Amino acid sequence: MPKLQNIYRVVSNEKLCPRFYRLCFDAPSIVRKVQPGQFVHIRARDGLEPFFRRPFSVCRAQKYVEIFYEVVGPGTGVLSLKKKGDPLDVLGPVGRPFDMPPPGIKQVVMIAGGIGVAPFLILSDVLKKKKKLELVLLYGGRTKGHVFNMKEFRSNGCAAHVATDDGSVGTRGRVDKLFAKINPDPKTTFIYTCGPNPMMAAAQKFARQHGIRGQAACEEVMACALGACLGCSIRTTKGFRTVCYDGPVFDLDEVIFDS
Ligand SMILES: Cc1cc2nc3c(=O)[nH]c(=O)nc-3n(C[C@H](O)[C@H](O)[C@H](O)COP(=O)(O)OP(=O)(O)OC[C@H]3O[C@@H](n4cnc5c(N)ncnc54)[C@H](O)[C@@H]3O)c2cc1C
Ligand code: FES
Questions:
Q1: Could you count the other beta carbons within 10 Å of the beta carbon of residue 196?
Q2: Using CB atoms within 10 A as the burial measure, which of 64, 110, 155, 232 is most buried?
Q3: 222 C-alpha to center of ligand 2: Å?
Q4: Quick one: pLDDT at residue 4?
Q5: Is 91 a pocket residue for ligand 2 (Cβ < 6 Å)?
């Protein structure tokens, strides 16, 4: 059986804005295997602090594996100091990936908030090869300095619409202001969402109102990422499920978003 945990080399770790970084590492075995929606579990450094690995969605997997992350605490702080050539202890890829859109779907709508945009770049890399799909990204961030550059999405053929809380780029307000941009036909539309729970709850409400099917990539604080400790359990209509093993991708209708 191939080894799930390995030491890889950092290729680059670019600071995009004060708290957002994009890190590439050389992991051909992950590039070959990973599917959109899966994540990698990274040990920021040896030693006791931070003790647990940290999970990050794979944002792209072409020549290298890429993650897009925000510095929020000790783990991501240590990660932001990694330099080209540094070793990186990675477990993965892990987790249930996104399903491909079901037959009959013509419009794929990706609804993302903040760092939740990460898994949609690799998803659009895969979906752009399906010629008959119209790809739409509805993306919300705090301010201009907190939104991912839409260039790569647009070059994948996505219609990308942005909203910021302060209106510094795109529409002023939350991402649900952008829902009017799409044609919500339940037979031909499929939604994928990832981001803060209140945003995914809004996406779920919109999907239910229009009878649209979809999937949500959920986040929860993790320890083992192997389904053993149950620390990352969330409530679903099917009972408690672990984000790391049963997810992170769930059917949108089954997740119970605690607000
Ligand atoms: C499947 C999955 C994919 C993820 N993908 C990305 C990604 O692509 N890019 C990215 O920047 N982050 C992602 N995250 C979140 C990322 O793992 C955390 O931000 C990171 O673990 C924080 O570690 P830290 O030591 O820097 O901060 P910590 O001190 O561990 O956390 C700082 C603060 O963030 C909160 N927090 C930590 N993890 C989470 C979480 N999962 N959900 C909600 N709140 C949390 C903590 O409660 C604390 O308040 C993902 C999480 C999961 C579960
Ligand atoms: S992190 Fe241990 S079960 Fe998910």
A1: 16
A2: 110
A3: 6
A4: 86
A5: no
Q: How far is the CA of 29 from the centre of ligand 2 (A)?
A: 23
Contact 215, 192 (CB under 8 A): yes
Parts of the chain with a pLDDT under 70: 1-3, 46-48, 259
Kindly give the pairing relationship between strand 5-17 and strand 87-94.
antiparallel
Q: Would you say the CB of residue 231 lies under 6 angstroms from ligand 2?
A: yes
Name the DSSP letter for residue 3: -
**pLDDT tens across 70-95, in order?**
999 999 999 999 999 999 999 989 99
Is residue 230 in contact with ligand 2, taking CB distance under 6 Å?
yes
Among 222, 241, 250, the mutation site with the greatest number of ligand 2 atoms within 8 A of its Cβ is 222
- Cα–ligand 2 centroid distance for 121 (angstroms): 25
For each of the domains in the chain, give its residue range(s) and CATH number, in order of start.
Answer: 5-94 (2.40.30.10), 107-254 (3.40.50.80)
Q: What is the pTM of this model?
A: 0.94
The residue type at 156? N
CA angle 66, 69, 71 (to 5 degrees): 145
| Ligand 2 nearest-atom number relative to CA 227 | 3
| Backbone φ and ψ of 24, nearest 5° | -115, 140
Task: Copy the structure tokens of residue 257.
Answer: 């978003």
Find all residues with CB under 8 Å of 218, minimum gap 6, and list them: 200, 234, 243, 247, 248, 249, 250, 255
Q: Is the CB of 108 under 6 A from ligand 2?
A: no
Say how many C-beta atoms besides its own lie within 10 A of residue 257's C-beta. Answer: 19
